[in-house]
């Protein structure tokens, strides 16, 4: 960019600091005119003009339309140039791959999806995902890739970007996911648990309010994402919120993680499928049994639909799952004290049948003060949510966590982002 050398060698620390702040104020729309920037930063008019001109010359900002006048000449608004680069998002699920392209403001501009078993292994899975991304990029305007976000259905060491003993991802333990994408796109890559991506999407939906939130996904597996005053809480090693493997009292069901009695082994979607098949083999009748007799596989989605249609077996399975999930969430409520709980995932598609039982157990087992201002709702279930969340992950890491380290280069680089702060 035009000002790369002067930004790198000429600018003083305070100039860079104020320049970064101004860009972020415009990017987040906290201030969109020069007078607003002056009021929020305390900088003089001349300094604001100088910094804004530098940001425009560097390619981060541009002039927009004229704003409303407060009596004098109407000020010209400023816009963050969100179209200057792509963010790539790859959301891997237990049984699907979803990829998308987003702009720097988090807008998903294109996406595609295909069914895929994550147990196929990392090599074939990432080859397939990269091929899907290439197809999307071929139809997008030619722009540099500034960041890649990858979500996976298992525990992730966020610092290294590698899965750690993921129960449903054989062959992925310790695999360097980041490396494959860095080699392909020459851009920084962040890898996180898939529930954290959904949590970030929910945060963006509620961006006007500081929020303490638990996002609980009850799909094939079970996991939770935690927001504390709007900040994602990953814990010391990235394992925060992994409630799927807390112990259920008196349970001896084997879990895919190798232990017994885990919440996921009792209440996850794959566990409900196992329970449904057992019940049908023991003579249960109804909608699910008819589907099974007709050669249709029982899935978590099928159980949720059958429950909404009144199938007795499906309703009993959904209630069983919801009660146990509610107990585990109640423990989090007492410890974490959120003001919002969002329930997502295929099993939660049973709607109020599932939600009402979760709500009942949470309020029954939690402290009155912890539930005084608590709302418990179902997620919107939009298929773009993991892509939106992945874009938010990249934006947060680019402009909140690492911006000062790569700003002088004019664009994020792998080395610049990974360098010590």
From TrEMBL:
Query: InterPro entries from the entry?
Result: ATPase_NBD (IPR043129), ROK (IPR000600), ROK_cs (IPR049874), WH-like_DNA-bd_sf (IPR036388), WH_DNA-bd_sf (IPR036390)
Q: Which Pfam families does this entry report, sorted A to Z? A: ROK (PF00480)
Q: Which Gene3D superfamilies match?
A: 3.30.420.40, Winged helix-like DNA-binding domain superfamily/Winged helix DNA-binding domain
Span-the-membrane segments of this chain are none
Query: Which family is this protein grouped under?
Result: Belongs to the ROK (NagC/XylR) family.
Q: What is this protein called?
A: Transcriptional regulator
């Amino acid at each position: 960019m035009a000002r790369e050398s002067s930004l790198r060698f000429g600018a003083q620390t305070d100039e860079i600091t104020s320049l970064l702040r101004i860009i972020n104020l415009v990017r987040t729309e906290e201030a969109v005119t020069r007078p607003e920037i002056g009021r929020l930063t305390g900088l003089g008019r001349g300094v604001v003009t100088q910094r804004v001109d530098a940001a425009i010359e560097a390619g981060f900002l541009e002039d927009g339309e004229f704003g409303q006048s407060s009596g004098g000449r109407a000020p010209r608004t400023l816009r963050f140039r969100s179209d200057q680069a792509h963010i790539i998002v790859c959301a891997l699920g237990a049984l699907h791959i979803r990829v998308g392209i987003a702009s720097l403001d988090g807008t998903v501009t294109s996406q595609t999806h295909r069914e895929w078993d994550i147990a196929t292994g990392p090599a074939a899975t990432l080859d397939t995902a990269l091929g899907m991304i290439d197809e999307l990029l071929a139809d997008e305007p030619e722009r540099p890739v500034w960041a890649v976000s990858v979500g996976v259905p298992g525990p992730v060491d966020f610092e290294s970007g590698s899965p750690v003993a993921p129960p449903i991802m054989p062959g992925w333990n310790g695999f360097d996911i980041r490396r494959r994408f860095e080699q392909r796109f020459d851009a920084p890559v962040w890898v996180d648990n898939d529930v954290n991506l959904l949590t970030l999407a929910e945060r963006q939906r509620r961006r006007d309010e500081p929020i303490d939130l638990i996002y609980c996904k009850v799909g094939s597996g079970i996991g939770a994402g935690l927001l504390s005053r709007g900040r994602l809480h990953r814990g010391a090693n990235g394992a925060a919120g992994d409630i799927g493997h807390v112990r259920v009292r008196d349970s001896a069901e084997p879990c895919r993680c190798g232990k017994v009695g885990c919440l996921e082994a009792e209440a996850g979607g794959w566990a409900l499928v196992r329970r449904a098949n057992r019940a049908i083999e023991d003579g249960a009748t109804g909608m699910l049994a008819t589907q099974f007799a007709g050669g249709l596989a029982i899935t978590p989605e099928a159980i949720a639909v059958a429950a909404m249609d009144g199938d007795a077996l499906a309703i009993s399975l959904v209630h069983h799952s919801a009660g146990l999930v509610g107990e585990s969430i109640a423990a989090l409520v007492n410890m974490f004290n959120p003001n919002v709980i969002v329930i997502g995932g295929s099993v939660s598609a049973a709607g109020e049948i599932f939600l009402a039982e979760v709500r009942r157990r949470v309020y029954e087992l939690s402290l009155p003060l912890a539930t005084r201002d608590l709302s418990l709702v179902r997620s919107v279930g939009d298929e773009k949510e993991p892509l939106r969340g992945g874009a938010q992950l990249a934006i947060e890491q680019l402009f909140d966590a690492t911006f000062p380290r790569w700003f002088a280069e004019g664009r994020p680089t792998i080395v610049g982002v990974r360098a010590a702060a």
